[in-house]
Design a protein that fits this description.
about 375 residues, alpha+beta, 8-stranded mixed beta sheet, 4-stranded antiparallel beta sheet, globular
Length: about 375
């Protein structure tokens, strides 16, 4: 169909098999398509060779400290909620080489710095949920500040294509609605899909997205399909039962009562394992490591993920500034829900619920936040 009526903001429909054409078109334009795939009993984000790699027929059940991936045989490709992986691994990888030093073989005391820029892949992220898109935007504020833009992050982020999927199947641990996000995204994507029984509704969010859709066998979205999509997403909102206290209340209470007895209670349960920070789509703590080859000819510096729950993270010359689990948990939750606002103008939480699902001690951030805002 001619693309004369296509424009940014328009919503059209495609038959589900046409998703394969989208993936093929993206690969032909040089993108590496990555998205959800079933591996080792969970949904992970990895390379996609075709839409057959997607978790069609699966659902996930998630509760505090519990994750189950179940095959039911349904016909949807994106019904299974995300697992432990987050999209930040593609823009802020677990390991990033910052600098490489090479010893001069003829003059062993001399070293040269290898500063050849390595062009990262152009990723097409397939199946990003609205809460995850908001997490990407939050990390943008961290790494792409006005005063400094991280070159490694920017090189990966600026070339990314985001194919979003509106969420119609929230799980028990979700609470995105109370963070002002919700199952439907409004902006910041190239294409946004809403999956129905036989078709995908596609909202065009960028010129790149418009060009992709222009080459598809698209058709106008009927009032019936639009009504069905709205009904599914409205029902998803109603199915989200967990809530987070209002940001204004959290900021005031968390910062004005750093000695709340609830911190003693959670410290007795918290393992300080760092799972919550590893699965969080916005956490960005990192450290640098100096590594050498066995023959001593090459040394390189890497940036690696770290966690504020790691005792060594707070170690400085002369001692540890956060020596106990109690103060490490307090640092995490007050930063996430309060001082993040001061630094970046937004909460550090998007309500995805990963930290609840993947906490082996079943610590629930919404439960802890509600307890911490209560007067003692």
């Amino acid at each position: 169909m001619a693309d004369i009526h296509l424009e940014i903001g328009a919503t059209v429909a495609i038959q589900k098999p046409a998703l394969e054409d989208i993936l093929l078109s993206l690969r032909n334009q040089g993108y590496e398509t990555v998205g959800p795939k079933v591996k080792d009993g969970s949904v992970v984000y990895t390379a996609l060779s075709s839409m057959q790699d997607l978790p069609k027929g699966y659902i996930s059940e998630q509760e505090a400290g519990t994750y189950r991936l179940i095959f039911t045989g349904h016909a949807d490709y994106f019904r299974a909620s995300p697992g432990p992986h987050t999209w930040k691994q593609f823009f802020f990888p677990p390991r990033t080489e910052l600098t490489r030093f090479q010893r001069d073989t003829h003059h062993p005391k001399n070293w040269s710095v290898d500063q050849k820029p390595v062009r990262p892949p152009a990723y097409a992220l397939i199946g990003v949920r609205p809460c995850e898109l908001e997490a990407i935007h939050i990390q943008d504020r961290v790494f792409l500040r006005e005063d400094y833009k991280d070159p490694f992050y920017r090189a990966r982020r600026e070339r990314a294509f985001i194919l979003l999927v509106n969420c119609s199947e929230p799980v028990e641990t979700c609470f995105c609605t109370s963070m002002g996000i919700g199952p439907r995204a409004k902006e910041g994507f190239d294409l946004a899909l809403t999956e129905l029984d036989d078709v995908f509704l596609i909202e065009i969010g960028s010129e790149t997205g418009r060009m992709i859709v222009a080459n598809l066998p698209w058709e106008a979205a009927s009032a019936f399909w639009i009504q069905e999509a709205n009904h599914k997403l409205d029902a998803a909102c109603q199915n989200i039962v967990r809530t987070m206290p209002a940001s204004e209340v959290l900021i005031e209470r968390l910062m004005n009562d750093l000695d709340h007895p609830r911190y003693d209670d959670v410290a007795r349960r918290c393992l300080s394992c760092g799972n919550c920070t590893l699965v969080c789509p916005t956490c960005f703590c990192w450290d640098t490591q100096e590594l050498n080859t066995m023959n001593g000819q090459v040394a390189h510096r890497e940036r690696v993920w770290d966690s504020c729950f790691n005792p060594e993270y707070s170690y400085v010359f002369g001692g540890n500034t956060r020596p106990t689990t109690r103060v490490r948990y307090r640092q995490w939750i007050t930063h996430k829900l309060a001082t993040w606002h001061h630094q970046f103008g937004t909460s550090g939480c998007v309500g995805c619920g990963r930290c609840i699902t993947w906490c082996p001690a079943r610590i629930d951030i919404t439960e802890e936040a509600a307890a911490l805002v209560k007067e003692v």
